[in-house]
Amino acid sequence: MVTSGIHPQGKARSDRAFVTLATNPDYATGAAALFRSLRRTGTTADLVLLYTELPDQTVSDLSTLGIRAVHVDLLPTSHEFNNLHARARLHGVAPFTKGEKPPFHTPLDNFAKLRLWQLDYARVVFIDADAIVLQNIDRLFDYPEFSAAPNVYESLADFHRLNSGVFTARPSQATYDAMLARLDQPGQFWKRTDQTFLEAYFPNWHGLPVFDNMLQYVWLNLPDLWRWQDIRVLHYQYEKPWENHAKADSLRVLIDLWKAHAGDGPVPDPRDLPLPPGAA
Ligand code: UDP
Ligand code: MN
């Protein structure tokens, strides 16, 4: 690959890939659980990790899962852009009122997801490193660019917005170049980083079923929507299942499921798990 800012190891084995991103060891912990869960679905697509800075040992541990590690640089955005999207500044002007972002979350790093448009695959499904896959989702490769599920975790109003934790894409250097030109304009502030940007860049985004990106707060806020047999991707937005956090007790069933997927042992059949309190 001759394009700049991206350094893949090895060759693609398939023309399709599930891709995630980890810019620090915490998200590498998440990525390992995600990859293990994807393997359990029997997919034949490549599993790709985009990473910026990780210890060599972390990368080689992840490589034992048979994944393809692709070193990428953060995007070549301007100083002004970087300052506008710095964690302290973003949290100050656009506070998160619904949940807590972990201390290891750096908003600017989110934009590195866009590097996947530089990959040598025909079709890609991106999944956040804080998600696990509970059933085969290879059918998502047949969905058009750009498909994503709604950002549902509180109310009907959520259906207006997409969640960028799961989406479909067709890599293309031309698309990547056009995205970067649009992304970094003088004074441009993307309040929810890549998510706000992708929504603006693909205003006619295609909707995926909510079950392809079930957000953990649905367990707390919309229990009637919870159907274990339908959930294909479970996404731990806000607080992460590998940290100690204030909502851990009320999300215990989901956290235990994540831990099972992160380990080597058997994983439970989700249909045997309890429903959230208050579910019909
Ligand atoms: N990410 C990362 N480093 C960061 C922030 C984010 O690698 O400092 C990646 C990681 O794949 C993560 C995704 O970007 O899952 C989006 O961030 P996060 O999942 O924490 O956001 P949320 O789903 O809580 O909105
Ligand atoms: Mn996430």
From TrEMBL:
InterPro entries, A to Z: Glyco_trans_8, GNT1/Glycosyltrans_8, Nucleotide-diphossugar_trans
Keyword Ligase attributed: no
Protein name: Glycosyl transferase
Source organism of the structure: Paracoccus litorisediminis
Annotated GO MF terms: glycosyltransferase activity
A Pfam family: Glyco_transf_8
Entry-linked Gene3D superfamilies: Spore Coat Polysaccharide Biosynthesis Protein SpsA, Chain A (3.90.550.10)
PANTHER family from the UniProt entry: GLYCOGENIN SUBFAMILY MEMBER (PTHR11183)
Keyword terms: Transferase
Top-rank lineage group of the source organism: Bacteria
